[in-house]
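for the writeup, i need someone to sanity check this before i put it in the appendix. the sequnce is what the collaborator sent (i think, or maybe the updated version? ugh). structure was predicted straight from it, no edits. if anything looks off just tell me and ill rerun, i have time this weekend
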Amino acid sequence: MYDLKCLLVGLSLILFLGNVSALCIVHKNLLATKNIYLTNNNGIFDIQHSDIVANGQSIYLLCNGGVEPTKFQCQSDNNFDPPLNTVMCSAPFEPSVVNVPDTSCPSPFLTYAVGYHVSGRFMELYRNCFDAQHLALQHSIYKVYRHENTAPRPNSPWNSDGISGGFDSAYEGKATQACLQTNLGAKQPQCRFDRGHMTPASAFMFTELKRTTFRYLNAIPQYAGVNRGYWRTIEGWVNSLVMGRNYDVLKVCTGALGVHRLKHKNSNKFISIFLLDNDKIPVPEWMYKIVSHLSGDKWVILTYNDFNEPSQQALDQMLCQPVNCHPNLHPNKRGVGYTVCCEPYDFITRNVPHLTGVC
């Protein structure tokens, strides 16, 4: 089985490298425009995720008015005909959020898919399993594709998609501190929480695709130091696997486990932390990322959502059989966020059995 897995990865790599001269690259300046590109296979449109287009393949432009009629074909000289910069979108095509059936999302939670409705077809970018009662993201599922370049991360407003009007104020620093001081009997200056993406903006190469990730359906409260520390390193490592041509496309499941607890100043009791109404928008104790390839390669990374290392009790309860990490991933060498790599099948079976066979 191991030999077969290596053969599959090797063949994929050989096929790609063997045709490296027969590729067109969407110029990095175009990645940051309002343009969204589509593929068309036998009349069926789908999203062009990568900035790499194979020789002989064509892509189309999706603007706010719909699909533009011009077909841009990758020629043998590695250029598009006509050139991509000859047609530009003046306004972006707006994404949709659709409730979809999904057996990997346990009842009573619901799955919300984010994507685009085009010509009667919904083209999915990613999907999230979400607890609407407690405003708690359970897990997110997306794919990351081989690419050469990526647009800068946009500074986009956050969208609540009509689910709740309390997200913005709950994440606001003063409101968070007031909530924590009431519940814990003292200020918590270290508790600065980011809106932590579960499907990260970095999973997509084009600005307009990145913007779709700025949704509260796709966020958890992450300690700012953790989100901008080792968690960011993990997201960069995932992208490095496809940018380094080791893999063509990876499936990623990202989720939250448990509710973080802090000690009350007076009683010394541990209090579960929520950003809203004492039972909504929970601050997770752990975040995990399951990364897999069709060859069978699979990794699980588990990160503690706190500046400090977890207590021995938290370590005993984390339900992870530690293993060596990928050679290019070095937990806790720099940045904030205690991180450990886990044996994938043991972790999934014990913590997220509903994702068995999915991630």
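The two ends are 19 Å apart (CA to CA). The first helix runs from residue 2 to 18.
thx in advance!!
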